[in-house]
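During the reporting period the student researcher (J.K.) took over the structure-prediction task from the postdoctoral fellow and processed the backlog of single-chain submissions. One of the processed entries is reproduced below for the supervisory committee.
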Amino acid sequence: MRSVFRVVENHRESDWTHTIFFDREIESTPGQFMMVWLPRLGEKPFTLSYLNAVTVKKAGAFTEKLAALEPGDEIGLRGPLGQGYPPLKRPALIGGGVGIAELRLLALASEEPSFVLGGRTADEILFYEEFRELGPVHVATEDGALGHKGLVTELLPVEADSYAVCGPERMMAACLPKLPAERTYFAVERYMKCAVGLCGQCTCSGWRVCTDGPIFPASTVAQMDDFGKRRRSKSGRWEAV
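J.K. obtained the following structure tokens:
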């Protein structure tokens, strides 16, 4: 059931990324997601970056509107939904772009986390100072503005007891062979409609991302022939990732 929440703060993280805070916290497991509803624009899934906030990158009409919300505006939220991360021991949290935001709650719930973060520029490395207070942070930026000049995959492998990966799918697919399958989890993203396992819009090689995931062990992701290659668009047609 969808509930109405009121926006209390719109925090600008960068020119294209905002964190939208709402008026009450949501009890959830790191990695679970919410379906966010805006009038006349429908619903889209977002993972919580705070117990009372989502972080959004402007990339279309829906995200432009969400990123422009002001205190007092109302939004609809449905969830939490899906399967989150299991408890992770001494994890390396590997994030790219806005996918870094999903790792914040997981970092706060973990003991001795370390971070491997990537983006095109330094502005894409979200929560950098906060993460530095929690554990070692390794960064790669494509323009060399912060950390290693290059791709986040060039920083792998790193030593840790477990691993969590969230970011652009091509990045995650490149990480897959570099990490131990039995101790690694991936956040898979697909376009969702019902978000409760009925419509099949979000399937990835037969797995329903909304209910079987969105967090999957690497051993399962390795069996997904579509991962890193193709997904269904809003219209239901296949498109390249």
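The committee noted the following: The two ends are 31 Å apart (CA to CA).
J.K. will present the remaining backlog at the next meeting.
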